[in-house]
Specification:
heterodimer, A: 314 residues, 14 helices, B: 349 residues, mainly alpha, 2% strand, globular
Chain lengths: 314, 349
C-alpha cells in the first residue's frame, strides 16, 4: 500500500521531472545525431565534460546561463572532433565514439585536478533555484510537480518542442532526416551531406553537454567523478525506445525517470529496506535493456544510420 | 573533400601517417604537461623511465600488461567479426568471481588441476555473460554496444552486492572484500624472486592461440567474413548468427581470463577495484594492434607502459595521472585516422 501512495505525492512527480531533465537534453542530442545518420557514442564523455565545464565556469564567477553556454560550446567542440572523424573520413562510429568518450572523460578529470589540486570535497556553486510559475504552480498535485522546477528544466521541455518542430516542420529538419535515410537523394538536391551530418553531430553534442551541465548546475550543485554514471548509455537506449522520435523519446525519459524516482522511494519503505540497495541501483540499467528488447521489433531505425557517405561512390 | 582509395601505397605512405599520429600524441601530451607547470621533456623522460627504466619498472609494466592482453584479445576477436563487445569489464569480473567462488576452499584440490578448473570455470562464466547480449542481438536485433555497456554497470553492482553480503570476508575488517583464495589456487611466479606470475605466459599463449584460430581455422575465416560483409557472408552460406554467438563466447571467455589471472596471480581476493578499467582499455589495445592478436601483445605492453610510467611520473612531477588516459585516447583516435590515410587519399572536389 505504501508503494501506491507514492504515486499520489507531488514530490514524487517533481522528482521524476527533475531526473528526466538531463536525460531529455542528452537524448535529444543523440536523436539529432542519429537522425542525420551518425551514432554518437561520445555522449557519455561529452556529458562529463559538460557537467564540469558549466560548473567550473560558474565557480570561476560566470553567471548560470553563461555556464550553460560554456558547457554547450565545450560539447560542440567534442562534437566537431567526432564529426570530422566520422563524417568526411567515415571512420568507424563505434571506435571514434568510444575514443571521444575516453578523451572527454580523461581530459575533464585532468582539468579538474589542475583547477582544484588540493581539494578532497569539491566546492559547491549556487545552482539554479526552483521558479514557481504564477497560477500554474497552484494547481493541486500537477502544479508543484510540473511548474515549480528550475528554469533549466523548463528549458528542457521548450527545447524538446523546438527540436520536434525543427525536425518535422522546417527545411533544415527535412534535410537532416533525409541525410539519415537517403543521403544520395540529399546530395542529388545539391545539398552537402557532410555539412548536414557534421552540423547535426556538433549541435547534438552541445545538447548532450547541456544534459551533463544540468547535473552539476540544477540537480546538484557540485561536480563529482563518476557523476554521469552511465546516463549517456541510457540515453542511447532511450533514443531506440522512442523510435527516433522526439516526443516519444521525452515520454520515455519521463517514464524512465519515474521508475528511478520510485525506486529511491521504495528503498526507504519497510519492504525496500530488506532488499540490498544494489538491486535498486541496477534497475535503471535493466530497464534500459528491457526497453531495447521491447522496442527492437517495432523501432524504425534511420536507414543510413552508421553508413558513411562518400560522394561519387555508388 | 572526398576519399580516393590508393591502389599501390608507397612505403612512405604506409609509415608516415602512423608516425605522425604518434608524434602528434606526444606533442599534445607535452603541451598538457606544460599547462600543468612541468617541463615537458622531463615528463616524457619520467614516463619512459617509470615504465621501462629499471627491472622493477619493467616487471610492473609486464604485470599491468597481462590483463590488458586478455581484454585486448577479447576486443580484437569480437571487433574482427564486427561484434561490438564493450562489456569486457563485466566479463573480467565474472572470471574473477568464479575464481573466488571455487578457489577459496570449495575445491580442496592440488594446485595444477585446481588452477585448470578455475581457468575453465572463469572462461565459462565470461562466455555465458556475453551470451545474453549476443542472443539479444541475433534473436531480437538489439544493438550489443548498449547492452554490453549497460551490463558493466549491472554486473559491478551485482559484485558489490555479493561483496557486502554472502562473499564478504569475515576477517576483512568490514571492507567489501572476499576471502583470499587458498594457496593451491595461486598462479606461481615464473621465476623465484621475480614478481611476475604465470598469468603472463597464459596471456601470451592465448594470443598465439587466437592468432592460429584466426588465420588457420574455418571459424577464423568465418569470423572475418562476417566482419567484412554480413550480407555477403550469409549469401555465401556462412551461418552468420552462429558465428556471432561463437565469437561472443570466445571474446567473453578471454576477458574473463583477465579476472582469473588478476585474482589467482596477483590480488588473491576479489574487491571492487580489482580492475581500473582494464575492460575499456582493452578496446584501445585492440585498436592500436589493428585487431591483430600478436599485435595485441605489443600494444598491451605499450599501453601498460604508459599507465605505469604515468603513475611514477605523476608522483615525481605532480602532473595528474589522467595524462596517461588522455594520451591513449588521443593515440586511439589519431591512429584510426592514420590507418585510413595509409589506404586513402584525400581529394578536393
Amino acid at each position: 500500500m505504501e508503494i501506491l501512495d507514492i504515486f499520489l505525492t507531488a514530490s514524487f512527480w517533481a522528482a521524476a521531472i527533475r531526473i528526466a531533465s538531463p536525460l531529455i537534453f542528452a537524448t535529444l542530442g543523440e536523436l539529432i545525431c542519429e537522425r542525420a545518420g551518425v551514432l554518437n557514442l561520445g555522449i557519455e564523455g561529452i556529458m562529463v565534460a559538460g557537467a564540469f565545464a558549466g560548473w567550473m565556469a560558474v565557480y570561476a564567477g560566470a553567471g548560470l546561463w553563461i555556464g550553460v553556454a560554456v558547457a554547450m560550446v565545450v560539447g560542440m567542440l567534442f562534437g566537431l572532433l567526432h564529426s570530422v572523424l566520422t563524417v568526411p573520413f567515415g571512420l568507424s562510429q563505434h571506435v571514434v565514439g568510444l575514443g571521444v568518450t575516453l578523451l572527454a572523460t580523461s581530459s575533464t578529470y585532468y582539468a579538474y585536478r589542475l583547477a582544484l589540486p588540493e581539494v578532497t570535497t569539491p566546492p559547491k556553486i549556487i545552482a539554479f533555484q526552483p521558479y514557481e510559475i504564477p497560477l500554474l504552480a497552484d494547481i493541486p498535485l500537477l502544479g508543484p510537480a510540473l511548474f515549480a522546477q528550475t528554469p533549466f528544466t523548463y528549458l528542457a521541455f521548450v527545447l524538446a518542442a523546438a527540436v520536434a518542430w525543427m525536425l518535422y516542420r522546417t527545411p533544415v529538419g527535412l534535410a537532416l532526416r533525409a541525410a539519415g535515410e537517403n543521403p544520395s537523394a540529399v546530395a542529388a538536391q545539391g545539398l552537402s551531406v557532410t555539412a548536414i551530418r557534421m552540423g547535426a553531430v556538433i549541435f547534438g553534442s552541445g545538447l548532450m553537454a547541456m544534459g551533463g551541465a544540468f547535473l552539476t548546475m540544477s540537480a546538484f550543485d557540485s561536480f563529482f567523478f563518476e557523476m554521469v554514471n552511465g546516463r549517456g548509455w541510457i540515453c542511447i537506449a532511450l533514443v531506440v525506445f522512442g523510435s527516433w522520435r522526439p516526443g516519444k523519446a521525452v515520454f520515455g525519459a519521463i517514464l524512465f525517470a519515474a521508475f528511478d524516482a520510485l525506486q529511491i522511494r521504495v528503498q526507504q519503505t519497510g519492504f525496500g529496506a530488506e532488499i540490498p540497495y544494489q538491486i535498486f541501483l541496477m534497475m535503471p540499467y535493466i530497464l534500459s535493456i528491457l526497453a531495447l528488447v521491447a522496442m527492437s521489433r517495432r523501432a524504425q531505425v534511420p536507414a543510413a544510420l552508421m553508413v558513411p557517405f562518400n560522394k561519387g561512390e555508388r | 573533400m572526398r576519399l580516393e582509395p590508393i591502389t599501390n601505397p608507397s612505403s612512405a605512405r604506409r609509415i608516415f601517417p602512423p608516425a605522425l599520429a604518434i608524434g602528434t600524441t606526444v606533442v599534445i601530451a607535452s603541451l598538457l604537461a606544460m599547462i600543468a607547470g612541468a617541463n615537458p621533456f622531463s615528463v616524457l623522460g619520467l614516463i619512459l623511465n617509470g615504465a621501462f627504466g629499471s627491472k622493477f619498472a619493467l616487471l610492473e609494466t609486464l604485470n599491468r600488461a597481462t590483463p590488458l592482453i586478455f581484454t585486448g584479445l577479447a576486443a580484437a576477436v569480437a571487433f574482427r567479426a564486427k561484434f561490438w563487445n564493450i562489456g569486457a569489464e563485466a566479463q573480467l569480473y565474472a572470471g574473477a568471481l568464479m575464481t573466488v567462488l571455487l578457489g577459496t576452499g570449495l575445491l580442496p584440490w592440488p594446485s595444477f588441476p585446481l588452477l585448470v578448473t578455475l581457468a575453465i570455470a572463469a572462461v565459462l562464466a565470461g562466455a555465458v555473460l556475453l551470451l545474453v547480449p549476443a542472443l539479444l542481438k541475433t534473436r531480437f536485433g538489439v544493438d550489443e554496444v548498449v547492452t554490453t555497456l549497460l551490463m558493466n554497470f549491472i554486473f559491478l553492482l551485482f559484485i558489490s552486492m555479493l561483496l557486502e553480503g554472502p562473499l564478504k570476508d569475515p576477517m576483512g575488517m568490514g571492507w567489501p572484500k572476499s576471502a583470499r583464495v587458498i594457496s593451491e589456487a595461486r598462479l606461481p611466479r615464473i621465476l623465484d624472486g621475480l614478481r611476475l606470475h604465470w598469468g603472463f605466459i597464459l596471456a601470451l599463449v592465448s594470443a598465439v592461440a587466437i592468432w592460429v584460430i584466426q588465420t588457420r581455422s574455418t571459424l577464423g575465416y568465418e569470423m572475418r567474413a562476417v566482419g567484412l560483409n554480413r550480407e555477403a557472408a550469409a549469401f555465401a552460406g556462412i551461418p552468420v548468427n552462429r558465428v556471432l554467438v561463437k565469437t561472443a563466447l570466445l571474446s567473453g571467455g578471454l576477458a574473463a581470463l583477465a579476472g582469473f589471472s588478476e585474482v589467482a596471480g596477483l590480488k588473491a581476493s576479489l574487491t571492487l577495484d580489482l580492475s581500473p578499467g582494464f575492460g575499456y582499455t582493452g578496446i584501445i589495445v585492440a585498436m592500436l594492434a589493428l585487431l591483430n592478436p600478436l599485435g595485441v601483445i605489443v600494444a598491451a605492453l605499450f599501453v601498460a607502459g604508459v599507465f605505469v610510467g604515468a603513475d611514477s611520473m605523476s608522483r615525481a612531477a605532480e602532473v595528474p595521472t589522467y595524462l596517461a588516459d588522455i594520451m591513449l585516447a588521443m593515440a586511439l583516435l589519431l591512429m584510426v585516422l592514420a590507418i585510413l590515410l595509409t589506404r586513402f587519399r584525400v581529394v578536393r572536389d
